[in-house]
Structures are given as structure tokens and as C-alpha cells.
Amino acid sequence: MHNPHPGLPEIDYIKPATLEEASRFLASHAGEARPFMGGTDCIVRIRDGVWKTKYLVDVKGLDGTDGIRFEAGKGLTIGAAVPMNKVAAHPDVQKHYPVLVEACHWVASYQLRSRATIVGNICNASPAGDTIGACMLLGGVLRVFGPDGMRDEPLNGFFKGPGKTNLKPGDIATALFLPLPPAGSVGRYIKLGRNRLGDLAIVGVTALGYPDASAASGFRFGIALASVAPVPLRASKAEEILAGKAIDEGVIAEAAQAAMDACTPIDDTRGSARYRKLMVRNLTRSALVDIWTKIRK
User: 73-89, pLDDT tens digit by residue?
Assistant: First the structure.
């Protein structure tokens, strides 16, 4: 009888002392070694045979991976090894980045979030990643250490396909930086799954709105869509509509339609492409109405 969940194969556990040592090992064993933080994605993929990994390189505890630091007037730095529950409970995150807290609470279960990390969610590059949309709309930038030293990787443009990013062999994402959100900003994350908790998104919509006198409407919105394209998707046409016209119910409906038109979902066991597109429209409209009622006061 076929076992759909075989045990883990034999893996060598590597614990380097420095980022330089970790990067050299990963680069010299490209295709065989993977960096290890929370492990909630990589262990499952190795167990199920999706990844043929020989070495897990534990990069927890190396420079910049373990802390959360908020700097007034500048922004938030989240170490790559910090679990989601710790991020969501941090008072500065709750005060300044509530949409990220909301997105974290939708990831799987509380137990899993005690291990899962936001940076891992990003680097996994699943189109259904719950926290990715918030991090994109908040202007997130990954701090990456590689063979050529440290560099910044803005999230907009970082994703290349399911499981594919700008990361190269030897690269280690050490932290995520989020600049301070615009004054008066309000965000929402709405997720549709087959059940209330623990399921991958059939559709996920993240929206962020804030006053901006330079926009014709007096406001700007960001909209990010999950699970409806090969990569996490910005609905740029919908954003332009909301910035360019006086906002009312009709303009919100027009923007929601533009978000629906922007996505390219597939049929799978969790939902049809047509259903996903229609739900993008409905959930985008709901998120925008909720944000608009709060920021226009």
C-alpha cells in the first residue's frame, strides 16, 4: 500500500558559525543544501519527496536573524528566524503594522505559527502565502547575505514563479525591513479557505489605504492578491482607478472589477478559476469598503 507521507530521508544537519560559512556551504552544494529557519515548509517538502535535499543548513542565531527592532520615524526590522506568533504579539507591530498582524493570524494554526516565520513565508514564494501581500504593500525589503556580501531585495519584483525568487545559490535572507506606513493608513486582509483555520487560501486579498493629497481622489490604495496568479500579484490598474477618481461605491466596484480582471487563477481541487475570479471581485470590494469607511472620516 502506498504511503502518502513517507518518513524523512537521511539528511545531514549543518550548523555554521557565521553567515559567511553558511553562504559558502550553500553555494558549494547548490541543489543539495537548503537554509533552515522554522522548517514548516522545507521539512514537509523533503518528507514528501518534492525536494531532494541532502543538507539542512541551520542559520538561526546568525547575525541579524533573531530580533525584532522598531526605530521611530524609520521602520521595523524582523529577523528571519523570528516566529510569526512573536511578530504578531510585538507591541510596535500591533501599533504600526496591524494589517501584518491580521495576516499572521490567518496562517495555519497557532502551534505552527510558533515555528513558522514571515521571512520563510516570503522565501517559500507560494502564490497563496498569507503574509506576503501585507509585506509587499508595506514596502517590504529583504536583507540578503550572499557570496558577494549583503544586499537589499525589494519584494516588488522579487517573485518569479511558484517557489521561484531572485535568491541565488549561497543566498540567506537574514531579515525583512518594513518602512513606517503612511500616516492614517488602514489595512485589511481577507482570506477565503475551505475552512476557517489551517487551510491554504483559495483567494486572499490584502488592501491598504491612506490619505494622499497628491492623488486626484485624495487617497491612495494598494491591493495585493494571493492564490490567483503564478506569483503574489499587485492589482495596479485597480490602484490607479482609486487614486484617479473621486471615490464612491461605483468607483470601488470599478476597482474591484479591475482586480478581478488582473488575476489569472487556475482550476484545482480547492476551487475553479471562475470562482476564484468572482471572489477576488467580491473580497476586494469588501476590503475597500471597510477601509474607505475608516479613512474618509
Answer: 999 999 999 999 999 99
Reply yes or no on domain 68-179 having CATH 2.60.60.20: no
Q: Write b or e for each residue in 9-35: b if 16 or more Cβ atoms lie within 10 A of its Cβ, otherwise e.
A: eeeeebebeebeebbebbeebeeebbb
157 pLDDT more than 50: yes
Look at residue 1 in the predicted model and tell me its pLDDT: 44
The C-alpha angle with vertex 94 and arms to 121 and 259, in degrees rounded to 5, equals 55
Mean pLDDT, rounded, of the chain: 92
**Helical segments of the chain, H only:** 19-28, 42-47, 84-89, 91-96, 98-105, 110-113, 118-124, 132-137, 236-244, 249-262, 273-295
Would you give the distance in Å from CA 228 to the centre of its chain?
14
C-alpha distances in angstroms, 32 versus 25, 53, 54, 78?
10, 5, 5, 28
Q: Which pLDDT tens digit goes with each residue over 43-64?
A: 777 777 777 788 989 998 888 7
Tell me the one-letter amino acid at 191.
Answer: K
Domain extents in the chain: 12-58, 68-179, 186-295
Quick one: which of 170, 274, 191, 182 has its CA closest to 220?
182
State pLDDT tens for residues 123-145. 999 999 999 999 999 999 999 99
Contact present, 39 and 53 (Cβ < 8 Å): no
Class of domain 12-58: alpha beta
* Superfamily of domain 186-295, CATH level 4: CO dehydrogenase flavoprotein, C-terminal domain (3.30.390.50)
